């Protein structure tokens, strides 16, 4: 038996207890939690087969009351003696995509981000927001299969792009490859077709939270997106953190959203919509270039889920909805490089180099932390990815 | 042992042999084919456990060479003596969703449809097509969990809508509920992240074809869709036919697409892009109101799949991509009621009633057939759905 010591200042103290999926030396992936610098095998610790699976889905599907019960049991067990075979140094394990993703929807919930993009794309329009923006959380479906775990290399996508003055589109590797620093919300239990999740019940359905990087090819996106929205500019990859922090752990991080005016329609209205006080950090080749503050987000997670299902769309265990780029009011809180560099016009200093969009070999690491009880801070690990050169599609065989 | 007699004129003759999933008297769902009015249990007929599953996915994942081999074996076996326990009258079985849907993308591949919607939504624009439309197959991701099998009731969705002169949006049941008559293409084998499907290899990846009705709430869609595309206006339900017709069966139905001018970029260019000569029929409460011709579609299935993956987006067994509304040049070939009734301004006669959009209790049945060898025609069954009244979301508990 072993006891785990948590280093001072660890983002994985006993108030976090996130869930992830690990393997060691090629063993089959299984569910774990993390305490300090130690990864703890939950199937061994708790003797429950639901954790001897390659994703969290089976556990999540057991529902809210089980999430509460397991978390309480975990909190007690991890501070005591733990079987040696359940304990692995964090540096020894491989972390995997923790969930089997069902449907994936990306929202656009930051007013600062939406307004910045409006100013960039529609400079002559006096109101940078579209008329629907303050009435509903605007979102679109993305490609579930393209969600990968932190550390997966990102291959620069190819596609069509056309500058305003080009006579015709050209094909090739994206030259405006960007990030979007977001939070992703993992749906633990879904709803049947024809029903919806009221805003007050969202936290019985949302299992947990991940860091999310929605890699974006701005040139592909700009040419393709009328009138049906982004598609190939986004569908090549999104990176999530390996640790899913339970929404239950983020109770101390709840903060009011900014004032919502006009008042949302009743299905979106809450006495006090809650956001989360998560501070993100974006490092570009090791240099911190932005600190996006999730607390600034206009639409709350509960409102996003209520909107997503209000038309009766079925939801499922493993659905992920992401917040959209997190941007605050200050320049150094913008969560996408297109905003940070104002469309490429204002390069940022990255370790002495003036940079606008991503170059091959660049690495972006997003981290984040939230307040826990008693001054502790809780972390998610990181959402990291390095850009690999484009692979041109096979030439014609004919 | 039994032999199956195919009635004259059956759309399920021995040249079709579609795949579906059935159950009888509450038994677990299994894979079948259909011959005439008989459903044949393939696990029994072929003695292969891959067909004793509730979806086609495991079989599809075995790949193109197996699809060819099984089809050849089936063609031989169904004309001979068949074990009694493999044979069920079509009227005795329940048909289920035949595939587990992975990602779902809906295209917009009919020039007539895109131009009609352009004229309706942007009447002052001299060119009804967006500038990208003839350069790439425009598409967007939809909600995979909302795909249901023919016969599933469709609950009228609720959502926000705002007329041009309304001061603010209102919430309630959609009042412009519509259909989109399409074909859906089922991906049998996928591709790894970072790779793509060349146009010449599409038919090694596309397993088969279904009828597809992308139910659409035009009022919800019109308010929500800027700038990220349709979302809740589409995500409540799409209906597919229970039978997946193998692409291998549709070889005689291949026809050239309309002339593509300007010439597509090399990754989309084919010596002769092939479409499919499938004639659809849309019946509204039993009255045929449209006959959409798939042969008129501008972008081919191979081009849609090549585009979908050219950025390196991973594809998977069970992915579905649909064509978008099929509309021909004549009014009575328009595959959506918004076009057929010109935005509601020109009602159609439905059994003596003047109708524009769908009312509660209405039923829409889409059928289709394609030429087989020697003058035979092949069918898909039907994509049918009846509109049930809206269910308002639960009122606030607070």
Automatic annotation (TrEMBL), chains A, B:
GO terms of molecular function: fumarylacetoacetase activity; metal ion binding
EC number of this enzyme: 3.7.1.2
Record has Metal-binding as a keyword: yes
Signal peptide limits: none
Pathway: Amino-acid degradation; L-phenylalanine degradation; acetoacetate and fumarate from L-phenylalanine: step 6/6
Domain Fumarylacetoacetase N-terminal: 16-98
Domain Fumarylacetoacetase-like C-terminal: 105-368
Coiled coil: none
GO biological process: homogentisate catabolic process; L-phenylalanine catabolic process; L-tyrosine catabolic process
Regions that span the bilayer: none
Active site: 113 (proton acceptor)
Positions bound to Ca(2+): 106, 180, 182, 214
List of residues binding substrate: 108, 122, 221, 225, 325
Positions that bind Mg(2+): 214, 234, 238
UniProt keyword terms in alphabetical order: Calcium, Hydrolase, Magnesium, Metal-binding, Phenylalanine catabolism, Tyrosine catabolism
Cofactor(s) recorded in Swiss-Prot or TrEMBL: Mg(2+); Ca(2+)
InterPro entries reported in the protein's UniProt record: Fumarylacetoacetase, Fumarylacetoacetase-like_C, Fumarylacetoacetase_C_sf, Fumarylacetoacetase_N, Fumarylacetoacetase_N_sf
Cited PANTHER family: FUMARYLACETOACETASE
NCBIfam families listed in its UniProt record: fum_ac_acetase
Protein's name according to its UniProt entry: fumarylacetoacetase
């Amino acid at each position: 038996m072993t006891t785990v010591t948590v280093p001072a200042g660890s983002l994985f103290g006993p108030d976090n207890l996130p869930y992830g999926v690990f393997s060691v030396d090629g063993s089959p992936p299984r569910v774990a939690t993390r305490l300090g610098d130690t990864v703890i095998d939950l199937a061994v610790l708790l003797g429950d087969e639901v954790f001897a699976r390659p994703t969290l889905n089976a556990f999540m599907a057991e529902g809210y009351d089980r999430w509460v019960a397991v978390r309480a049991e975990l909190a007690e067990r991890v501070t005591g003696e733990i079987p040696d075979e359940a304990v692995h140094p964090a540096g020894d394990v491989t972390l995997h995509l923790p969930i089997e993703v069902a449907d994936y929807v990306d929202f656009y919930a930051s007013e600062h981000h939406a307004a910045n993009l409006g100013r960039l794309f529609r400079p002559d329009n006096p109101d940078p927001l579209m008329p629907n923006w303050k009435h509903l959380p605007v979102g679109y479906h993305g490609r579930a299969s393209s969600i990968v775990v932190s550390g997966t290399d990102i291959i620069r996508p190819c596609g069509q792009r056309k500058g305003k003055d080009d006579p015709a589109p050209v094909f090739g590797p994206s030259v405006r490859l960007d990030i979007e620093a977001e939070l992703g919300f993992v749906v633990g239990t879904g709803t049947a077709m024809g029903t919806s999740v009221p805003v007050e019940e969202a936290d019985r359905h949302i299992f947990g939270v991940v860091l999310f990087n929605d890699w974006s090819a701005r040139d592909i996106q700009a040419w393709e997106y009328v009138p049906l929205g982004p598609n190939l500019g986004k569908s090549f990859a999104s990176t999530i953190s390996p640790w899913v922090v339970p929404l239950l752990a983020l109770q101390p991080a709840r903060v009011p959203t900014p004032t919502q005016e006009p008042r949302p329609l009743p299905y979106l209205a809450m006495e006090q919509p809650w956001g989360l006080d998560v501070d993100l950090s974006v490092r570009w080749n090791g240099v911190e270039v932005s600190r996006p503050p999730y607390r600034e987000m206009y639409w709350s997670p509960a409102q996003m889920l209520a909107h997503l299902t209000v038309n009766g769309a079925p939801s499922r265990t493993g659905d992920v909805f992401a917040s959209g780029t997190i941007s605050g009011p200050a320049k150094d809180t913008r969560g996408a490089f297109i905003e940070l560099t104002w469309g490429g016009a204002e390069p940022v200093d990255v370790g002495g180099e003036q940079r606008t969009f991503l170059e091959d070999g660049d690495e972006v690491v997003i981290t984040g932390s939230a307040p826990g009880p008693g001054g502790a801070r809780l972390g998610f690990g990181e959402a990291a990815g390095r850009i690999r050169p484009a692979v041109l599609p096979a030439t014609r065989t004919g």
